[in-house]
Amino acid sequence: MPDLIREAARSGVVVFHEEVARDGSQGKTLMLGQHRVSLAKRHSSILGANASRQLVFNAGFPSCGTEEFEAVRQVMSEVDCCYVGASGRATRDEAHLLLRAVEGARFGRVSVAVPTSVAMCATMLHKPPPACIDDAVAIVKILMDAGTASCVDFALVDATRSDVGFVADAASRLTEAGASMIIICDTVGALFPAESRRLFSQLVARASAEVTFVVHMHNDLGFGLANTLEALSCGIRGVTGSWLSLGERAGMPATEQLLFALGHEPERLPERMGIKADIWIERPNLRAIVPVARYVSQVTGREILVTDPIVGTGVNSISTGTPFVNPTLFQPYDPLSILGIGPTILLTPLASRRIVVAVASRLGCRLSSADVDRALSWVKSESFDRGVGVIDEADFAQFLEELGYPASSCASVQGPALLSAAVGNRTDHVERTGDRPSSANMAHRHVK
User: Of the spans 65-74, 327-336, 356-365, which averages the highest pLDDT?
Assistant: First the structure.
């Protein structure tokens, strides 16, 4: 059976190795078998009918125990829309365990970790680097001779702190022995972007032309995503990510950020990254990213933060005056049209009169100019009294009721319609306290 992932990468298409179920568990999370199955299918749906050419979902580390082995087996048996990987170390015992783990999978894949630096070789396998690579070549033979349809990848652990010539030679030897893809691991996340560019350029130049590289960058210094993009600029088409950046220590490049960086305006990648060929078979469905990220958050317990790029709760939120007047000036893309995230207006200590008018309008209240000032003063003082960054809308509704405005639930107007209406609702034209709301505003109200 042909290796669709390797073929795609060698043709210039970007391929993703997803690590949230394996490396993510080293970030102190756990995904049950059924969750891994569901996520693999959800992730595949972002890539559409060509997921089997662009996605390897690493299901886990079977040698960790019976429960982990069974979870990996569940993904192998229930997912046929993308490649499913099983990871292990470069020992004969684990090689045979990996073969059992991938048995029967439609798109099975084995990923074997072998150290390359002097220190890591001594720690993991108690041997010098050349002996570790010799053993790894023997492992390739064991896996290939088993006669399964599964592909075999090798992860070169601590490769970025190893001699580049040695790593290039090891990659060439393993590929010649039958390995499919060679994963270059910045195991401790120590590289700066310029260092990454030099390393990947040298590896591509010095390794055999048959070698197909994947990069596995950790985020300890915050450069995981940048280093991965540097690899793409150097011609490497295999990337590794993890949803919500989950992974060992500080994690890995966030899958949602990689998908967006490469899938939004791919026609501009030549000017941005020097990538001249189209890296997509078909463009990913970026509007599916946020729901998938929320699913990962739910099943792992990793909260989505306000400041998380692409999927954070602060995306398309407005809390100050100037962004309220012209939101597009403060956005690198349109969150509504690209991701399906509509605007939300929040009451914070930085609120302006326009913000107060907009939130009051959402609650069905047209405030007098004097009451706008009272409400704005209350929001600011209440924020500092409570020591909170956002005032709950229900509390604001209670305050408005105490001012004499009837209690109401949130109106049905949301998203761009609300924002457009609120921007046009200038405070020098608001109605006085007790005036009957206009017929247009009555449509925005839903009284309990």
Answer: 65-74
Question: Does 156 score more than 70 pLDDT?
Answer: yes
3-state helix, strand, coil in the chain (%, to 5): 50, 10, 35
CB 225 within 8 A of CB 257: yes
Q: Which residues pair with 391 in a beta bridge?
A: 347
Cα–Cα distance, 260 to 145 (Å, whole number):
40
With CA atoms as reference, report the closest residue to 53 among 2, 104, 103, 100.
Answer: 2
Alpha-carbon distance 219 to 206, whole Å? 26
Amino acid at 259: L
* pLDDT higher than 50, residue 424: no
Provide the 3-class DSSP secondary structure of residue 31. coil
Both tokens of 99, joined, read 């073969």
Element (H, E) at 238: strand 238-241
Instruction: Tell me the per-residue pLDDT of 73-83, one tens digit each, with 9 for 90 and over.
Output: 999 999 999 99
Residue 177 CB partners (closer than 8 Å, separation 6+): 137, 140, 141, 144
Extended strands (E) in 265-372: 317-318, 344-345
Buried b (16+ CB within 10 A) or exposed e, 357-391: bbbbbbbbbbbbeebbeebbebbbebbeeeeeeeb
Q: Which two tokens stand for residue 422?
A: 């609120």
73: left (phi over 0), alpha (psi -120 to 50) or beta: alpha
pLDDT of amino acid 321: 81
Residue indicated by tokens 């396998």? 125
DSSP string, 212-234: -EEEEE--TTS-HHHHHHHHHHT
Q: Given pLDDT bands bounded at 50, 70 and 90, which one contains residue 406? A: confident
Helix, strand or coil, per DSSP, at residue 207: coil
Paired with 83 in beta bridges are 56
Q: DSSP readout, 169-198?
A: HHHHHHHHHT---EEEEETT----HHHHHH
At residue 409, does pLDDT exceed 90? no
Percent of the chain's residues with pLDDT above 90: 84
Global pTM value: 0.88
